[in-house]
Structures are given as structure tokens and as C-alpha cells.
Design a protein that fits this description.
five-stranded mixed sheet, mainly beta
Length: 309
């Protein structure tokens, strides 16, 4: 199943009339609390919905033109097969609810208007250490009709992979190095859209996104996934025009390295869009290097979670 760029995380409540403004109400009795359930996910690129350990949630309700706080960067986490958060919040009869969430925990802050401010997000880690960033919202839910709440989590980063393939006997790769890519910045998001500000760009002299030396031969099948997942801030056409990949290599018997500069903006990849996956395959032949690029949605499995209390 091809992935439309969001993952469904569910939280809900028992059915019935609700009765509180966000604090534990000792008199609530059997009134319905707001409860959370979600797939478990990893820190890195999220492709399945059964590996999530926690996320942060914000929530408000409006009643009689007054805004009440329900959740404020509250961590919803898994303990065994159970999910929970500290304290209990109950649905409020007559209230209209908005919920927002961020994965992973510890990033960003929403306000009651639904504007997210998230500063200093760094995408320089790769492979198993890469950190995915997702956001979600669900608005205008009635406290008079407690229900399962579906949070459509959306990836805020683009996913890249770089693979080197050899079509001759042996080649020594001194390094691969990315330059001109946007890897750190502040995310601002509201109902009007998403914007990255104060962005830092990786230079050729930086140690970020630089591979160690390796050799392609029969022992590794003449192929190497260089970094694993590379999760980056989206790049529009103008920004991607500055993105380069430097490949330094040599064949057996050669004393000097060859260096090739590859433009990462191609006909297949005029931009890097959040929620899309871009795979660059570099094929080394005896005389030249060929670059092929494929563009796909991130795939997902088991994203729907049904549950009941």
C-alpha cells in the first residue's frame, strides 16, 4: 500500500456525558475520561504504525466563549500494552475540543490558536539515529459526543537514500559528501501552512553527511547503502539547486582519486517534498558514473488501530 503522507494515531474515550475542565474530578465517577491509544513507532523514519513509544499532545476546549486548557505538551506513552498519561482529563459537556500532537516527545509548543513553534530541529543524524518529525491535529470535536479521535500524523521531513552500485570489478570509495543541504532550522506551522526559518546549510568543509572510505567488491555485492535513512528539511526548487553530492573514488592501479560533483536537483527531483522518499542510485562504470533517482511515498503497514474500553 502506497502511503499518503500521514499516519493515523488514535485516542478516544468511553461513551457518555462528560464533566470536567481538564483536572481530575473526584466526583466524576463513571463519566468518560479522555484516553489515548496509538501505534508504537521508532525514532527514525516511520514506515509502520506499530513501533511508536510516545508522543506529545496539546488540547483545549471552548465553552461559552472561554478557552480551557486540557493538555499542554503532555506525554502519552506506552507501558507494556497500556497507554497513558499523568492524571485524568474528562470530556466537558458543551465544550468544543481541538487537539494537536508532535512526534517525537520534547519538541515544539502549540498555542490555543493551533500555531506550532518548534526551534532548532537538527537533521544531521542518519541511519538508525535519524529522527523523524511528525505533527497532527484534530479540531472541532464535541464534548457532548465523546468519540475515538483520529490524529492524522504527517511527516514534516523528506526521506532520502543514497546507494552506490559497481558495474566493474573493484572500486575504492574515498568518501561521499553532501553540500548545500538545509539540515537545521525552526518550524512554524498554522492553518495557513508550514514554514522553516533560520535554516542552516551544510557546507563541503562540514563533517556532517560525509561517509567513511569503503570498497565495493564481491564481499558486499558491489553495492552500499551509504547512510541509511537521511531525513531532511524540505527543499523547494531554488533551494535544491544548491544541493550537491561529491564522490571521490579510484579503481585498482590508479594512484590519483577521481572526484565527481553531482547535482541533486534533477528532472525526477525538482524539489524535496515533506512526506516523499527519494532514492539516489549511483552506478559506477569503468569510464563514468550514472545517477538514477526514484521518487516514492513512504510505505506504511498496519496504520489503523481499532480499540475499545
Amino acid at each position: 500500500m502506497k502511503w499518503k503522507p500521514f499516519l493515523y494515531l488514535l485516542f478516544g474515550s468511553l461513551m457518555g456525558e462528560a464533566c470536567s475542565s481538564g483536572e481530575v474530578d473526584p466526583s466524576a465517577g463513571s463519566q468518560p475520561p479522555i484516553a489515548f491509544r496509538s501505534p508504537q513507532m521508532t525514532r527514525a523514519a516511520i514506515t509502520t504504525a506499530d513501533r511508536m513509544d510516545a508522543f506529545s499532545v496539546w488540547g483545549w476546549y471552548v465553552k461559552n466563549s472561554t478557552i480551557y486548557d486540557v493538555f499542554d505538551a503532555t506525554t502519552v506513552s506506552r507501558s507494556g500494552t497500556d497507554w497513558g498519561y499523568e492524571g485524568i482529563r474528562y470530556w466537558m459537556s458543551g465544550g468544543v475540543y481541538d487537539f494537536y500532537a508532535v512526534y517525537p516527545v520534547g519538541w515544539g509548543q502549540y498555542d490555543a490558536e493551533g500555531e506550532l513553534t518548534l526551534t532548532g530541529f537538527n537533521c544531521s543524524l542518519t541511519g538508525v539515529d535519524a529522527v523523524d518529525l511528525m505533527t497532527a491535529s484534530r479540531l472541532d470535536l464535541s464534548g457532548d459526543a465523546p468519540q475515538t479521535v483520529v490524529l492524522p500524523f504527517k511527516h514534516e521531513l523528506a526521506r532520502l537514500k543514497f546507494t552506490v552500485v559497481l558495474e566493474s570489478s573493484v572500486v575504492e570509495i574515498s568518501s561521499l559528501k553532501l553540500e548545500g543541504i538545509r539540515f537545521k532550522g525552526d518550524l512554524f506551522k498554522n492553518s495557513m501552512g508550514t514554514e522553516w526559518r533560520n535554516v542552516e546549510v551544510c557546507e563541503q568543509t562540514d563533517e556532517y553527511f560525509k561517509s567513511a572510505a569503503f570498497t565495493l567488491n564481491t564481499e558486499n555485492g558491489f553495492s552500499r547503502d551509504v547512510w541509511g535513512d537521511v531525513l531532511l528539511i524540505p527543499h523547494d526548487a531554488e533551494q535544491l539547486a544548491d544541493a550537491k553530492l561529491y564522490v571521490t573514488y579510484r579503481y585498482p592501479g590508479e594512484t590519483n582519486n577521481r572526484t565527481i560533483t553531482i547535482d541533486l536537483k534533477t528532472a525526477q527531483t525538482p524539489e524535496w517534498i515533506a512526506g516523499k522518499s527519494y532514492s539516489y542510485t549511483l552506478t559506477l562504470k569503468s569510464a563514468d558514473l550514472i545517477v538514477n533517482v526514484s521518487v516514492n511515498d513512504w510505505t506504511e503497514e498496519n496504520t489503523s488501530v481499532s480499540w475499545g474500553n
